[in-house]
Amino acid sequence: xxxxxxxxxxxxxxxxxxxxxxxxxxxxxxxxxxxxxxxxxxxxxxxxxxxxxxxxxxxxxxxxxxxxxxxxxxxxxxxxxxxxxxxxxxxxxxxxxxxxxxxxxx
Length: 106
Known about the structure:
single chain, about 110 residues
């Protein structure tokens, strides 16, 4: 029993010390967790706002692209008419395809 008592007291003291440390550190750990969670929430909100702004920019750019494509399609028929009336453009197969076309600069 003489040897058992110091070992038993050691374990009891260890248990009391661990419990006391846990009680003291529990609040600090909880505060650190709450602080980290609130920081992460703020960053998440900022990133969400940036993502929405980017999506709106992409939608606006897609709309501009569609408008440009529509204008481009509307402008193509007059260009075909100009191509047909342009001088030195072969309109039909005449057998002169082997001759080089004259440039407007020559």
